[in-house]
Write a structure and sequence with these properties.
By secondary structure, this protein is an all-alpha fold. It contains 14 helices and 2 strands. Strands 1-2 form a two-stranded antiparallel ribbon.
């Protein structure tokens, strides 16, 4: 296996980790976003939190693995991305930690005011994390001001309002929030019963409409402001099957909801997220960060990769480790399948 082939394989594996994280922690974040609006009363709020209680920390392992794999396989890209998004990543870290604290602390005190504070902290942290993920993706597609040393020379405000693409990163961020909220709502519809389930189902219809509007707007914005995002489709026409499958997956969500089949709706929203993540990877390949100041300063898979020996050893470890991670994930989800039931050990 050649050095270049190993490099592309690791880019693909990073994409697989991104898809896994976006699908699994996506519904965690989505549940947090809709939590204060669909649950009425303390019992229903506990049901909502316990729907992700046994799963959320395991889902975040995919993000940790993604960061570790990026560091080891493409250290220059890791350095540029993490230094460029330093302030945003500190906010993201704060949000992810605060979300965990909200889940753990909420039930420690039997006081309405105390629990209400942590409910809204859970909502705010989940929404902020989803927004930051989307904004980061929008910046990577639109490009960033990178100098010859691989350092970001812009400001955090430029990451929300790009000098070259305007509000594009913010639009992608808002679309991501709507997507995760819809995904989390469908998951909650799958895991709940009675009035809460019916209320969640009605909320998902509204969330689907919001996502659809933002998705169409973001797609048109991409074609207008970032025309280079489709350049790889000209070189590899077979990639067009991904947007076709994405449209079919999106269209199947309302169909599944109308037939009251939450599992099919959840699989469709998962397929939508997988397709969007795949399109994101196709839009930036072979780059990690496109420089808007000078194309020669862009960080790509060729100038950011580790040595051939490192990539080869990592691939051996991945071949052994990924089946273990997948087996653990399947076992956990199988163990906690079915509707949420509260007991003495629940949050």
């Amino acid at each position: 296996m050649s050095y270049d082939t190993l490099t592309v394989i690791w880019f693909v594996l990073l994409g697989v980790l991104l898809i896994g994280y976006a699908i699994l922690d996506g519904f965690d974040l989505g549940v947090g976003i809709i939590h204060p609006f669909v649950a009425r009363g303390d019992r229903e709020r506990r049901v909502v939190m316990n729907s992700i209680g046994p799963l959320w920390d395991g889902n975040e392992v995919w993000l940790v693995t993604l960061g570790g794999a990026l560091f080891a396989a493409f250290p220059n890209a890791y350095a540029t991305v993490f230094s460029g998004f330093y302030s945003a990543f500190m906010l993201l870290l704060f949000a992810l930690i605060f979300r965990a604290v909200s889940i753990e602390f909420r039930s420690k005190v039997h006081n309405r005011f105390w629990r209400s504070i942590w409910d809204w902290c859970f909502f705010g942290a989940s929404g902020l994390a989803a927004l930051l993920f989307g904004v980061a993706g929008g910046n990577l597609i639109a490009g960033m001001a990178i100098n010859e040393g691989g350092d970001y020379t812009g400001t955090m405000l430029n990451q929300l309002w790009s000098p070259t693409a305007g509000a594009y990163p913010l639009v992608v961020g808002l679309m991501t929030v709507a997507l995760f909220a819809m995904h989390g709502g469908i998951y909650l519809y799958l895991k709940t019963e009675d009035e809460l389930q019916e209320r969640t189902r009605r909320a998902v219809w509204s969330l689907f409409g919001i996502f659809l509007v933002l998705y169409i707007f973001a797609t048109m914005y991409t074609l207008q402001a970032v025309p280079n995002a489709t350049r790889n489709f000209e070189a590899a026409p077979w990639l067009w099957i991904v947007p076709v499958l994405k449209v079919l997956a999106i269209a199947n969500i309302p169909r599944a909801l109308s037939k009251r089949k939450p599992l099919y709706a959840f699989l469709s929203s998962s397929a939508t997220i997988a397709a969007l993540a795949t399109l994101f990877a196709a839009a930036i390949f072979p780059n990690f960060v496109v420089s808007t100041t000078d194309a020669a300063n862009s960080v790509n898979i060729w100038n950011a990769r580790s040595s051939e020996k490192t990539l080869r050893i990592m691939l051996i470890i991945a071949v052994i480790g990924i089946p273990c991670v997948l087996s653990y994930t399947v076992a956990i989800y199988w163990t906690f399948r079915g509707k949420v039931k509260l007991d003495s050990s629940s949050y």
